[in-house]
Amino acid sequence: MGTLLDGFMVSKAIRSELKDRVAKLISNGKRVPCLAVIIVGEDPASQTYVNSKAKQSKDVGYTSQTIALPTQTTQEDLISAVEKLNHDNNVDGILVQLPLPQHIDEDALINAIAPEKDVDGLHPLNVGYLNLGEPTFIPCTPKGIIRLLDWYNINLEGKRALVIGRSRLVGKPIAALLMARNATVTVAHSKTTDLNALLAEAEIIVVAMGRPEFIKAEHIKANQVLVDVGIHRGDGKIIGDVEHAAYEKAAFATPVPKGVGPMTIASLLENTMEAYLRGDHHE
Ligand code: NAP
């Protein structure tokens, strides 16, 4: 049986370090970092994520603002809410919880966030920096994945990595990060023809498909590192894009829950600290 990568434990260590840093700021009489989260509508999964982001921000000692807007909010009003936060010197990080209602143009919203407060790393400028290998805000889930693999000293250099999924939030940025770490990266998506052949030759597999338990134990071999990004709620439990039996077959695997999920929020808190430190208004 392989090793489970304990994202919950690692995220706790990261949060505890951030808490110490906030305590130092307070003892030096400084303002503490502030994360603002905008949520539009009543999607229960989004509400759960936003509540947990706000709670964990407060737990490390940040101030947190949640701006909850009704589903019918116009794009114009939403952009004004973002712009207000852009100009608020007490706000370091801004996150707009996705997905947004159909009538809102997601790209326009993301483009409206000031790049220096874009702690989700989704603004085109930050995406560009990431792909150029320049310092930037790294999207939270991919950042958390790399952090978790590093924690367990998993070597990425020269490895054949397969990323299944090419979303803006996960697939594309994790592929860029793995490439930056000298892995040889293949990106699969819904039009990929022979996924099984790619799975068979991969040494690191990141699954971000949004398909419950699509990857089965039979696809996985004992030398592989398996990262399950999927989150699906139902029947009172949370499952991933990979079936549980597959975790046991791999050399290392991130479980769902308590794998990538907690690392995502820890990375958001780290990005918020980074935004705070980068800003010239925290004295
Ligand atoms: P997404 O935007 O729906 O993207 C899914 C990707 O998977 C797409 O690129 C799609 O290909 C590809 N895909 C779908 N079916 C496929 C198939 N049969 N074979 C190969 N590729 C296939 O999803 P996402 O935002 O990346 O999220 C993926 C999953 O991760 C979801 O379950 C989400 O809830 C979860 N998630 C978890 C966290 C966390 O913190 N743990 C954070 C973000 C997301 P096309 O591009 O061709 O459509």
What order do the helices and strands come in, and which of them pair?
Elements lengths: L2 E2 L2 H21 L6 E7 L3 H17 L2 E7 L5 H12 L6 E4 L9 H7 L11 H9 L7 H12 L8 E5 L6 H10 L3 E5 L6 H7 L2 E4 L17 E4 L3 E3 L2 E3 L4 H6 L2 E3 L5 H19 L5
Helix pairs in contact: 1-10, 2-10, 6-7, 6-10
The structure holds NADP nicotinamide-adenine-dinucleotide phosphate (NAP).
The site of NADP nicotinamide-adenine-dinucleotide phosphate has 25 residues, from helix 10.
Which distinct ligands sit in these coordinates?
Answer: NADP nicotinamide-adenine-dinucleotide phosphate
Q: Give the distance, in angstroms, between the N- and C-terminal Cα atoms.
A: 51 Å
Mean pLDDT comes to 96
Order of SSEs, N→C? EHEHEHEHHHEHEHEEEEHEH
Q: Give the overall form.
A: globular
Amount of beta strand:
15-25%
The low-confidence parts are: none
Number of helices: 10
- Taking strands numbered 1, 2, ... along the chain, how are they ordered across the largest sheet? 1-11-8-7-5-6
Helix content: 40-55%
CATH topology of the largest domain: Rossmann fold
* Total separate domains: 2
Under CATH, the homologous superfamily of the largest domain reads NAD(P)-binding Rossmann-like Domain
Over the alpha carbons, how many angstroms does the gyration radius reach? 19 Å
